[in-house]
Amino acid sequence: MDDELNALRRTRMRWNTPLSEAHASVLLDRLDLGEGPHLVDLGCGWGELLLRASERAPALRVTGVDADEVALARGRSAARERGLAVEFTSSDAATWDTPVERAFCIGAAHVFGSTKAGLAGLARVVPSGRLLYGDGFWAAPPNPAALEIFGPDTLTLPELVDTAADAGWRVRHLSVADQLEWDDFESTSRAGWEEWLAAHPADPRAGEVREWLDRRLREYVRDYRGVLGLAYLVLTR
Ligand SMILES: C[S@@+](CC[C@H](N)C(=O)[O-])C[C@H]1O[C@@H](n2cnc3c(N)ncnc32)[C@H](O)[C@@H]1O
């Protein structure tokens, strides 16, 4: 799909994870942001949660790292519009080697290779301080199609908590996305293209877009709705 359509697909999403405004606010509370001074988000996407953190704690130095130029451009533009001094850096997040006091890594542990490698790598990024870690887990036993989509490395929630403990983390907060957060996430992830398709039914790209939208909805309701969970952990050393 071309850059124009790629940029359009996520425009209706608040952030690229199943998370309500109220839930996000609780997570930021638990991070004690005021104690910074440096917060980094590894795999930040367009960094909306970072922008919220910067609004809450203006003295924080705030850096987002991602490899997706379209997402980074959206983040930079939003920061400019809101007068926030958030830095957006284009690089492989796995190469970040500056220790910080606060970090986010949400839906991006795969950057390090796996959940286990991510939690170990993040322990070096946050040697003391707080990490907001978001990761998928099996909320119910997966069918073969869900296993195919999300891979055999996905853990159960007890396994995820044990893996964090093995990497030396203490769990200060744990919450999971609820069904409404998931349904909103899935619906908004399709909404940008649904709107485009309704306005451009005769465009040569319409068939491919319709196919993608139909497959995503089918996979969600048949294969992973209620099966894949998303856990948010606030971790300390
Ligand atoms: C599921 S999204 C989550 C984005 C963001 N954390 C959020 O919650 O909105 C995963 C992000 O990881 C980024 N990513 C994937 N591989 C990366 C890499 N090697 N280095 C930096 N970012 C990467 C993707 O571009 C994407 O923005």
Briefly characterize the structure.
The chain is an alpha/beta fold and 237 residues long.
Order of helices and strands: HHEHEHEEHEHEHEHHE
Poorly predicted ranges (pLDDT <50, ≥5 residues)?
none
Helix content: 40-55%
CATH class designation: Alpha Beta
What Rg is obtained from the alpha carbons, in whole angstroms?
A: 18 Å
- Any idea what the CATH architecture is? 3-Layer(aba) Sandwich
The backbone outline, from C-alpha atoms, is globular
Features:
237 residues, Rossmann fold, alpha/beta, 9 helices, 46% helix
Descriptive overview:
This protein is α/β, with parallel strands linked by helices and 237 residues long. It has one domain: Rossmann fold (3-Layer(aba) Sandwich), CATH 3.40.50.150. It is 46% helix and 20% strand. The protein is built from nine helices and eight strands. The protein has helices spanning 3-9, 21-30, 48-56, 69-82, 115-125, 144-150, 157-166, 179-199, 206-224, and strands at residues 38-42, 61-66, 86-90, 102-106, 130-138, 155-156, 170-176, 228-236. Helix 8 packs antiparallel against helix 9 (206-224). It starts with a helix and ends with a strand. 35% of the residues are buried.
